[in-house]
Specification:
By secondary structure, the chain is an alpha/beta fold. It has one domain (about 5-250): Aldolase class I (TIM Barrel), CATH 3.20.20. The protein has helices at about 15-30, 45-55, 80-85, 95-100, 105-120, 130-135, 140-150, 180-200, 215-220, 240-245, and strands at about 5-10, 35-40, 60-65, 90-95, 120-125, 165, 205-210, 230. Helix 7 (about 140-150) packs parallel to helix 8. The protein starts with a strand and ends in an 8-residue tail after the last helix. The protein binds 1,3-dihydroxyacetonephosphate. 1,3-dihydroxyacetonephosphate (13P) binds near residues 95, 211, 231 and 232.
Length: about 250
Amino acid sequence: MRRPILAANWKMNLTSADVSAYTNRFIPLVADAKDVDIVIAAPFTLLDRLANELAGTAIQAAGQNVHPEESGAFTGEIAAAMLADMGCAYAIVGHSERRALFGESSAFVAKKASALLRCEIRPIVCVGETLQQRDAGRALEVVETQLRESLAEIPGEQAEQVVVAYEPVWAIGTGRTATPEIAQEVHAHIRKQLSAQFGEAGNRIRIQYGGSVKPETVYDLMNQPDIDGALVGGASLDPEAFSRIVLYQNQRNP
Ligand code: 13P
């Protein structure tokens, strides 16, 4: 049984004053959510404050990116040990915005993921096709290649630490969630690939769906056999909406 993992990705939003307003509202709303992992990926500048606010709860802070080197002349970058120092348990790598806007390759993402594992941070490795690739019938092939290259440096014994996030680019920030069936088709493909690479451990790796997830859509997505969580952008900026996503079991449509 894979433990569900619901993660907020705040992207480049919010400032320090917003953090306690958010956590003061969010923490009590999810107090009853015992059987899920809850993660908030915040901008680097907010991590210290966020981790402090989350102390004593089971909610974990995450980075949104990392640089693969341990230290050195990399102006503007953040190392895995620095995220660990801020209390991060997870970090996102290979988000489509980083791949598209900052030219990050899967080989670079692979280095980031292994740098995180060396610091005992769990990587959330994102993959996903563009609309053009989907329309050309290449969705599975694109995701497969991204995944193979992005996980190329994960040692088998650490495979279970990894979380994979399938985020179709055409569904991010567009209000257009993939249907549960479309998402499941890709998740099943990812699962097969994880099992081929990591054996039994591949079956225990959690695969999140991301792309316009909302309280209204989360239940049916989570009900699919290979969807083990959600990575939520826009809706996660509202603590009430994100709490309903965390409590997805209560969101079943009548
Ligand atoms: P939205 O939920 O805003 O579509 O963003 C998804 C995403 O990119 C999460 O990483």
